[in-house]
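Researcher: Let's run the pair from yesterday's discussion. Sequence first, then tokens, for each.
Model: Starting with the first of the pair.
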Amino acid sequence: MQAGFQNFVAFFAALLAAAGAAAQVNVVKLGVSEYTTHSRTNGITGVGVPPGADAETGNATTIILTYERMLTPEIGAEFVIGLPPKIKANATGSVAFLGDNVLSARNVTPTLFVNYHFGAPGDIWRPYLGAGVNYTKFVRIESKLASDVTMSDSTGWAAQAGIDYALNREWGLFASVAALRVKSNVVASGATVLRTTIDFRPIVYSFGAVYRF
């Protein structure tokens, strides 16, 4: 699954190289993101697991940092990374009695976008749309139901819409919303082996400061 992300990284690097000295504008953003999940699973299966066993994931807040190189006045290549938020899952369905926080993990989610900015440089308001790829790796995985838990990495599409507001030539504010495709196969080994696939379907809302140089 990492091949798709590696290919996009290569494409991103090629864009920057092609821009060369002509790319004079760099944009750095620091902000707060609300990582909201709208998860679905295919159910939890395993020996002794009752039919209808399921789980749902919650939301998390984190800090993000982005770097965008403007390749033309309208098109930019952007890299987004954040502090790994902690995502928790609660038991639902026939195993709801197991309660909250049956599984937790932090997700490292570098994302690459190619953005199209509307308007012109110097405009106070500049909306933009972006499309790209997200790579998610799950770390620090824990479960009160099993001593050994693994979650597969995920590579999938990413799309975003946002707007920049210029306070002056260098500083500004931004707000954006992004949708990501994130799926992971979960295997928990303890007294029995539990399996499920989580489709997180995250929507990420972000707001913060912009610096151009």
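Model: Moving on to the second of the pair.
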Amino acid sequence: MNGLQLAATAAVDYPPSQAFGDLSQIAPIATLAVAMIVAILADAVLPFPRRGPVVMAISAAGLVVAFAFAFGSWLQGGGHSAYFGFVTGDNFALYFEMLFSVLGLMTLVVSHAYVRRRGLYEAELHILTLAALVGMMALAAATSLVTVFVALETLSLALYVATGYSRRDTTSQEAAAKYLLIGGFASAFVLYGMALVYGASGSTLLPEINKAITANQASNPILILGVVMLAVGFSFKISGAPFHQWTPDVYQGAPLPVTAFMSVGTKAAAFAMIIRVFGSGLANVSTEWQVLLAFVAVLSMVVGNLAAIVQSSVKRLLAYSGIAQGGYMLVGVIAGGRDGVAAVLFYLAAYVFMNFGAFAVLTVLVDRRGEHDQLDDLTGLGYRNQPLGILMTVFMLSLAGFPPLVGFIGKFFLFRAAVAGGWTWLVVIAVLASVISVAYYLRVVYHVWTPSAEQAHLRRMPGPLVAVLASGILALILGVFPTLILVAGLTGAAPVLVAAGH
């Protein structure tokens, strides 16, 4: 019996105690959904000048409560499957729910300062952020192909609109149109792949798919085509080469807070989806999808790093950097096992703080005329605002993988797991690609510490400064005490491996 039939049959006998128990498993997601609805109502009824601050306060409260629910459940040992196997509240889901809550809070403070500086409407951007976070959290908690697709579209639709949020900016509108068209194309691949996997397994539930699809079915053409379609669709979502072409244009055209948010949030949610679907539901045909992901990983690391070298826009440079970083993370997914999944979870947390912090620094440079994301705009930043210059240097060196920063520690965990799994050749390519990346990361650092004729101190923007400082502190803490998150990653990896029968 597949997931849809099971839900229809069980719905006739659904006691209140079970309803409450199931709701408790998705408490962080439900909290954000309620906060989003309340924020929409507040935006509709409050006087115009009060809408932005009130909606921001509602959003922040929702994120704090969501984090508290997730953290409390984590301390109790995690949750279990709910709603007839369509979602779960296990430690893997809780890990991402806590990570997304922190990301949401940092995005709120950056967005608040950005829209004030640009003269944009504030409330709707916070509501779109909440909608995207609901999709991200649901994607991490999904244990059914149906839930995966619904969560993926919830996330995507919110980001399509947010990308075009700067209504008077033609580049923002162009980026939104590109993102919508290419994102819809990628979603079609995912949906068709899911349909083929359902046809081969007879179920939409990931644990049931894992049981139905054995190693003997690796030659089933329907299943293989489904795996290929899923790999292509997922590669679009993580900006993996050769499906990366949309990324630089969308990152450059979207408003800075949206770019910062989706550059790390979408990637983290997409990797949660990949680990769930491939690592848990399709574990018995791992050889097939490992080959596909290895191809995407190599291309991503090579293309991303080489293309980033010639960029003059920091947003486009970080877009290509993100493509390469996705390739590094795929190395951990391909390695699999307890260490591989834990390494990916650790590196995702590190990447959130490193990359978001770098984008938050650019937010400080925003004024009424628009964004200033060229490398020349960073010239002399270390002299105009020394703390910002130091933190930007930390972010760049960490992304490049300089020891003892968190980027180096994260790559070490990824590469160690891959070598242990027999993927030494892939690690060699990843190390060489990392060496190439040093060129453009140090180029940013060079501009930051090059004296310029413009030595005026930057105007203080408390929101972005707080986000930059928080990102920098968290990145440094993870580098000095990596076991704080690595242990959490190992705990979060366990439910996926158990579901896969490992």
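Researcher: Give me one sentence on the second I can quote.
Model: Residues 23-499 form one domain.
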